[in-house]
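Quick one: structure for this chain?
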Amino acid sequence: MRLHSRYFIFVLGFNLLSSFGFAKANFPARGFAPVLDVEQAEDRLKQFKLSFFGLPKKSFHQAYSYRFQFAHYPQAGVPEKRHGFLSGLSPHSPTFRIDLITSSQDLNPLSSFLLIRDLNGSKAWKWTRGNQNAQKLTSENWRTPWIDGINHSPFDLLMPFVSWPFEYQKSGRVCGRPAHLFVFTPSNKGNPYSSSLESVRLALDDAYDAPLRIEHMDGGILPARIFSLQSFKKVNNRWVVKSIDVKDRDSKSRTRFELQAVAHDLDLPVSAFQPSGLSQPLGLSSISLDSI
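Got it. Here's what it folds into:
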């Protein structure tokens, strides 16, 4: 069964076999993988874009909601833990919602985000408790963390860099998997997300067209930030991502995104996945989740 790359945050049927630090500047791709010619590389990336930015399909009883935890590990000090929900109307939909809560027991969101992937221009909104209306986030704010003090941000889910000019670099094994490595560089018009972000390196799995590893480059020898998938688990015949790490070079910190419970085949209100409905509760307390 072939899984689509738009699931890469949620679904994939393999384990990453190793973790990475900042010891080497070169992308850690070693061993055999089929080398692509120019046409094959363009086709592979095109397929990834089509699935990642795929148009939503009308579906019923296919909504999902995942309870997750952000665990932030600074270079020194006590780890910090934050909680939230990631929800969508269906696995095919490029629209999804993040609700951040104070604890796994208090389900009243402190803030909520609505993200819409679109090849012609993705969009993001944020609602904060106490406000009536959601605020549209500018592209400059996409790399602002979901919560102060962690390494994850909306940029990691929207991945707008895949629309930048690219170069196929090489093929090799990444995390024990055959993969193809691409480098994306902003056009001459500039980079609206961060002046320090000069390029992004992406490893796509050869079999699943799913990202295995992403590196943000700022002109230094070492990546400024590394995004890597860590582990997966099968729940009710679905493979779900168990954990994702984002390592920051300058702070020498690591934030782990870890799923704790999942629910599939739900009916969630469509209005809650629109900017005007971002303040609308999803009824999280009534959702029965399976712990993983």
